[in-house]
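Hey, can you fold this one?
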Amino acid sequence: MSLKSSVYDHACEFLDKYVDEWFSRDLDQPLVVLISGPQGSGKSYNGQRIYTHLRDKYSQKNVAYSSIDDFYLTHEDQQGLALQYKENKLLQGRGLPGTHDLSLLNECLGEVLGRRKDGLLNLPQYDKSLFSGEGDRSDDSKLSVKLPVDIFILEGWFLGFEPHLQTVEEDLIDGDMADINAKLFMYSDLLWNNPEVHSLGIVLATDEIQNVYMWRTQQEHETIHVKGSGMSDIDVRRFVDRYMPCYELYYDDFVRGENLGSVATLTIGIDKDRRVFSVKTRAIE
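Sure. Predicted structure:
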């Protein structure tokens, strides 16, 4: 396939190969598709299209789609977290590891991995436009998916980031990032380093992490157009500023590692216009 093809085209080619192989094993185990990319890189847009592709191709399978963003703490709980860590500027609002309801995520993942044969999986929905762009999650807004789930798609900007094991000799992490690094272990253990999770990874790798500022501003303009409210351009820059220490510490190692998925990982390089300039596949299992 030519590099002129889109992210979606490359992702579908990758998935068609490895999803077919997975179900040919007849293991009766769900397959998780992890999609990771910086904010605004197109992971949600492509994730939704990938969901439709897999749902239509594997019509006899139950396919579910969610975002790590949908598992953010409620606005009230986020305010409580910010107060608890009032000296940590990185936790003064949603976004980074530690600002999600991991109990809820663990519960939902348990339903997927448990292979219960009937009932519904209730996935949360998060509205980023509420509270002037601070966002909130409502218990009244849920997406119900029939069980058992055969393919579970989860996308998020830091999926696959590896927390550092800090030693006395290595003073790599201090200050605000020490809290984030400690919390990242919980996500890692639950998802990409969990031996019970059999996964395909799709990584959108930008050639310049500063592209996030432009992409995230474009996103917010669209949110305001659709929802009627959201963050100002200045608020967006301040919002993205909180993410940059995390990118600086983990992102390059994550992209070079090519091991988001436990079965196989597709890494798609994209430029500031989200055009594909490189494609690499690494099979692991």
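DSSP finds eight helices and eight strands in the chain. Let me know if you want another pass with a different chain boundary.
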